Amino acid sequence: AWMVVSEDRRTAFLTYVQPLARPNPGLRFLHLSGLAPELRYQIDCVIASAKEHFSGVPSAWSEKGPDGRVFGGDELMHAGVMLPILMGDSQSFGWYLHAVGEKGEDSWQK
């Protein structure tokens, strides 16, 4: 995985490449770095071809992985975000993260 974070830590782009598929891979988490712990980030999947290959994700996620979900920066760095299970060799995806507010705001629990 590769990740680039803006200087103000309000946006980031993450890409993940799976050269070879793994049989029965189980759940895997990716711990991000360089984010602002006090901010909330929305994750958008921006590589459309990968959206068709997500499989076996928990019901708490949409079928596209964390697309559109909001997480705290501290949560993404310490607990991580669950990687979707990609079906097949040579699969990849890209996530665009952008700050949508601070954790202390009323909308945090929505």
Count of alpha and pi helical runs: 2
Low-confidence stretches: 55-64
C-alpha Rg (nearest Å): 14 Å
Distance N to C terminus:
30 Å
Q: How much is the average pLDDT?
A: 79
Note the main sheet. 5 strands, antiparallel
Give the helix/strand class. Answer: mainly beta
Strand content: 35-45%
For this structure, the quaternary state is: single chain
| N-to-C SSE string, H for helix and E for strand | EEEEHEEHEEE
Task: Say how many strands there are.
Answer: 9
> Any idea what the shape is?
elongated
| Fraction of helical residues | under 10%
Spatial strand order of the main sheet: 1-2-9-4-6
Notes on the protein architecture:
The chain is mainly beta. About 10% of the residues lie in helices and about 40% in strands. It is built from two helices and nine strands, in the order E-E-E-E-H-E-E-H-E-E-E. The chain has helices at about 50, 75-80, and strands at about 1-5, 10-20, 30, 40-45, 55, 70, 80, 85, 90-100. It has a five-stranded antiparallel β-sheet with strand order 1-2-9-4-6. A two-stranded antiparallel sheet has the order 3-7. Strands 5-8 form a two-stranded antiparallel ribbon. A hairpin with a 5-residue loop joins strand 1 and strand 2.
Indicate the topology:
Blueprint: E1 2-5, E2 11-18, E3 29-30, E4 39-45, H1 48-51, E5 54-55, E6 70-72, H2 73-78, E7 81-82, E8 85-86, E9 91-102
Antiparallel strand pairs: 1-2, 2-9, 3-7, 4-6, 4-9, 5-8
